[in-house]
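If you are new to this repository, start here. Below is one unmodified record pulled from the training split, so you can see the exact layout before writing a loader.
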Amino acid sequence: MSKIQKAIDSLQGAVALSQTITVKDAEKLRENIDALAFASALGAADDQAVARWLVWEIAQALGIYPASIHELYTARGRGELPNDFTVPAMNLRVMTYDCARAVFRAAIARNAGAFIFEIARSEMTYSFQRPQEYVTSILAAAIKEGWNGPVFIQGDHFQVSHARYKVDPEKEVQTVKDLATEAIAAGFYNIDVDTSTLVDIAKADLRAQQHLNGKHCAEISTFVRSIEPKGVTVSIGGEIGEVGLTNSTEPELRAFMDEFNANFVAGLPGLSKISIQTGTSHGGTVLPDGSIAEAKVDFDTIRHLGEVAREYEAGGAVQHGASTLPDTAFTKFPQVGTLEIHLATNFMTMMFDRVPESLRQEMNEWIKANYPKPENQSEEQFLYKNRKNVTGPFKSHVWNLPADQKQVITSAWEAQFGMLFDSLNIANTIDYVDRVIHAYPVRKTLADFGVTEKEAEDVSDLSD
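And here is the target side for that same chain:
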């Protein structure tokens, strides 16, 4: 029996294969799709490839399509859609299939359509999730929860390492292009190009400061346009300053866009959004007792720079590093017209807080054994800053948690996603998505899903 037939048989007659996949029993499929998600994440290479191909084709058959949010953002920039909702972009580092299921449940309950799943270059490495696996986990979750329609999957912080750029600029820029190639082929039709690491504030002139940022963002964006699938206009974002540093200004944004436009191919669709710095940091600032310092977000900056971004035909401004803000802060983002907000760390924290104590201790001991503790950090700070690095080595541990222990985690996630969706005002945005997003089937063969091992890279200087 072939591996394909064996995988199809595991779905208990829910699908049939002739020239294409046909779904015969959607309910039975939903009952059994877990096996394909598990095989994709933790199976042997051949089983992973089969599972990923089947999930992709089943999703296509059900009308579940990876899509670009570009048209929604540019329509909003033109004033054709309201400016009173903020799209959450969620980085799922752990238990991705189960976590995505919680997202879809919260979205379906609210008729929400404008939300994004994302993962950064750095996260792919330490969480052991390459693009094909990530897409499969998201699509399998959509199938499981009965979703129908576009699914937005994004490459977050496709970032140039400043240190490696100094050694070999061409090679480092090519690395980001190669990652974009891998991601788009997998179904990432939204890419955040982050060359903000190349901003040189030592230069007196703002245009000179932003030169390399704008130049290489344009270069990578032009490349993305050359490889996007037929009928897809990938949503591309740029970034004008590293998150966690000085707040962004209008002159910086204009300098970046002038450099970008000077180096971008005229006539091609440009950036759909611009990420700015407003007072937050990735993961938050950890205090010695392990608590998170309160961040002071400059909402006036978000409002103003969003307006400036729309002058350049983008949809608006993007807020990074917001996951650790107090819940009461999220209602303010749609009030100032924030286009998109990136959320990650708190979802991982919620998992760590709810796993069995024995597993949490095992994770902490692994951190202590593998990372030196700086003298200027308390143990709580040290463990907090390094625990993201256990997500890969302990991936199978959390995927294999008993159902009742998973339920504790996923119920908390679903409540958190519901709170965020309500605060960000994305209820009923499925209507906007249906109005402006054009998602197309992209058929694939098993040969498109050959699993290739990627050499682990040092991502310690890259953002999440």
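Two things worth knowing about this chain: Residues 1-62 form one domain. The longest strand covers residues 149-159.
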